[in-house]
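@channel anyone free to eyeball this complex?
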Amino acid sequence: MSRQTIKQSKRIVVKIGTNSLLDDNNQLNYRRIDRLAYVLSTLVQYKKEVILVTSGAIGVGCAQLNIAERPVAIPKQQAIASVGQVALMTVYDRFFGYYNQPVGQVLLTKDIIDFPESYINYQNSMNALLNNQIIPIINENDAVAVEEMDHHTRFGDNDTLSGMVARTTAADLLILLTDVDGFYSGNPQSDASAKRFKVLYEVTDELMEMAGDKGSTFSTGGMQTKLRAAKQLLIDQISTAIMSSHDPSDIFSLLDGYDIGTVFIPETKED
Ligand code: GLU
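replying in thread with the prediction:
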């Protein structure tokens, strides 16, 4: 089965989740962040346009402030995110800086899709960054984006956010890095017959149900939000890959067309 479409991707959004950024002791996993910075910087050298969507503001904030558990109170979470976001960007800036790759922070709220003026400003900003070979590093602005009772101001999870970013920047490919190496028909740890889907051309209700089954995913963001993002992007002719964050160098193999993770490809684009 051809992965030609994946190989031809020029504008690529990469999303990494909190679990992938922290080690077992909830401290930043420097090795992984370094590998990620190396891979993404190299892709820019190869003339790809790269956007990074990162989670971790709250997770890293908890680590910075020695807080063992994420507090329930929203204002506390906001304060923690505000601290964590700075720590997160400092680390990215240092590692990308090692590879001489400039990065820029872009913190989004739902305003950018609710207000046309904000949307245009966001697009101008993204285009200016990409045109200058700068990697935009995006997160939700968790210090101010709060879900209110009847007015939803948040994207909520970064699978959804990164899907929106891929769509609004007319990207070719969204890569969702996570703690499992693809989308499986069951839980590969307990079910020997569970199979990794390699290439999918549509996201059916049946697949959504499989993703909903807790046994089929170990990732906190959940497989369903990933599949929902992929489904939405297929409509816009954008491909999605779900793959392990274990070794970010696998992104090179993915882009070389090798059998990595699960890819969702718009059928019309395949030969
Ligand atoms: N914006 C959240 C954070 O940085 C992450 C949301 C998610 O995990 O999907 O902590």
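from a first look: The pocket of glutamic acid is lined by residues 17-18, 55-59, 139-140, 142, 157-158, 221 (CB under 6 Å).
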